[in-house]
Design a protein that fits this description.
With 484 residues, the chain is of the alpha/beta class. It folds into 3 domains: 68 residues, no CATH class; 255 residues, no CATH class; 100 residues, no CATH class. It is 49% helix and 9% strand. The strands form 2 sheets. Strands 4-5-6-7-8 form a 5-stranded mixed β-sheet, sandwiched between helices.
Length: 484
């Protein structure tokens, strides 16, 4: 820190340095002579680089407990600075492409994978790759640490912590859309609580700027080791490519402005994670499951911004090891997920008994579970009996919606096409489509008004449980061996 008197001296010395032909000509000897001319006794001068991540060359003047740093590079024209700034701008554009910000608490190598994968692909594909890569970072355990260990350290998230915990457990209990909806408004409220008196009548965009500007100012002070430094070097414009913390804070600001709080008519993204579209019911696309982990991390990042805004540093830039709180929360979510899977299987069975599919949820159309069940039953009830009857069997993947899958059995130049339906109550169009290539169409479970669905075709139709495959040519049926 510097006193008003030393501030005036430092400013005057900097103006004199700027008037020289080149800042590179500034030396400790020159600075020492200028200090003596101003009557500054006991001055200590040295030349060394300063900067937390990308140091820049300069001269340090020490006057007792007060220090000043005088850079020897231009704040906008130095070639090395320009290269770093251009690289930072390019990376920031890629983070904007995937509608996110440079992630805190994630190893740099993992973050680079996201940036590099997005570089040469369209935006839709870039976000698909983002979801793939970040799913290995924003794991169930990572989210538990955010909720149980990072958020409670921020006063702005005090009201949101119980909500985040409940949303986390509800999400992994199957109530995904409701969990996402609960957290979207929490971000604006948390940002408001960072500022004294809630920022008064400021618009939300101005609240974001005020909070993040102060956080960047704190980072700038630490970047230059708390020394007085010319103001043009402490701006986000200069430090954007020099300080990783400033880069992270600024890309978070851009995400808030250009994506999350962007006006309804201006939003042109793909994640649809937008406060205004959610509030006005402009779309339901915000219900994408991947948005939940984004919201958990965004809330934790608001806590980090508060920590730097207040200079409390309660929320660390380093991800802590899991403690008892986050471990128990993680285990609680795992138990909820396991219980939900059992519930889903029971639901599938009950709906099937009535010839229906479980109704779609906003974040789950049930296709993944249907495909898993269909694959398991196909191997058990269709492929194995065909193999035991002497056929070689080629199995296709389940159809995308999990309604059917097909197999082709071959032996001695003969072939048998068979299909397995998820349910008897399947569209007649699908029955007709399958009958073109399959002589046998089977379905899981008991018949359910079969004649109302499987009409107009000559293929054999029936329940898989009552069907026995024909023997392959010149084969005898293989009887499974039992161990006594």
């Amino acid at each position: 820190m510097s006193s008003p008197t030393s501030e005036r001296h430092f400013q005057a010395l900097w103006r004199r340095a700027q008037s020289a032909p080149s800042l590179k000509d500034l030396t400790p000897e020159i600075m020492f002579s200028w200090a003596r001319e101003r009557g500054l006794e006991g001055a200590i001068v040295e030349a060394r680089p300063v900067g937390a991540f990308s140091p820049i060359d300069g001269v340090i003047l020490t006057l007792g407990a007060r220090k000043a740093f005088f850079p020897r590079i231009s704040p906008s024209e130095d070639p090395t600075w320009l290269v770093r700034r251009q690289t930072a701008d390019a990376d920031a554009a890629l983070w904007e492409k995937v509608e996110w910000f440079t992630p805190f608490w994630v190893p740099m190598g993992e973050a680079r994978k996201v940036v590099e994968s997005a570089r040469h692909v369209p935006k839709t594909r870039a976000i698909e790759l983002f979801n793939y890569h970040m799913s290995t970072s924003y794991t169930l355990a990572f989210q538990a640490v955010c909720i149980a260990q990072l958020m409670p350290k921020a006063r702005s998230l005090e009201a949101a912590c119980p909500l985040a915990r409940e949303a986390y457990l509800a999400f992994y209990s199957g109530y995904r859309a409701s969990s996402i909806a609960a957290l979207i408004p929490a971000i604006e409220g948390a940002i408001t609580r960072i500022l004294p008196d809630g920022g008064g009548s400021l618009a939300v965009a101005d609240k974001v700027d005020r909070a993040i500007d102060r956080a960047i100012a704190t980072a700038a002070g630490l970047h230059f080791e708390g020394m007085w430094t010319p103001v043009e070097y402490r701006t986000k414009e200069f430090l954007f490519g020099q300080d990783e913390r400033v880069f992270g804070f600024e890309t978070f600001r851009r995400w808030l402005h250009r994506s999350f709080f962007r006006k309804t008519g201006e939003y042109d993204g793909i994640t649809w994670l937008n406060r205004h579209l959610f509030a006005h019911g402009g779309t339901t696309e915000w219900q994408q499951s991947s948005n939940f982990s984004r919201l958990v991390v965004a809330l934790a990042t608001v806590g980090l911004i508060e920590s730097w805004h207040d200079e409390s540093h309660q929320v660390s830039l380093f991800l802590p090891e899991m403690n008892a709180d986050s471990t128990l929360l993680h285990q609680q979510a795992q138990l909820r997920a396991q219980t939900q899977m059992a519930v889903q299987l029971i639901e599938q069975q009950r709906y099937q008994e009535h010839g229906r599919l479980v109704p779609e949820m906003p974040t789950d159309d049930g296709a993944m579970l249907r495909r898993a069940i269909l694959s398991e039953d196909c191997i058990k009830d269709l492929v194995r009996p065909l193999r035991d009857a002497g056929w070689s069997v080629k199995v296709s993947d389940p159809e995308a919606t999990g309604l059917y899958m097909t197999v082709v059995a071959t032996a001695d130049g003969q072939s048998l096409g068979a299909a397995l339906l998820y349910s008897c109550a399947t569209s007649n169009d699908i029955y007709r489509q399958l009958a073109e290539t399959c002589s046998v169409i089977l379905y899981r479970g008991a018949p359910y008004h079969e004649d109302q669905y499987a009409y107009g075709i000559t293929a054999h139709v029936g329940s898989i449980t009552g069907w026995q495959p024909p023997l392959a040519p010149d084969r005898t049926r293989r009887v499974p061996q039992t161990v006594s």
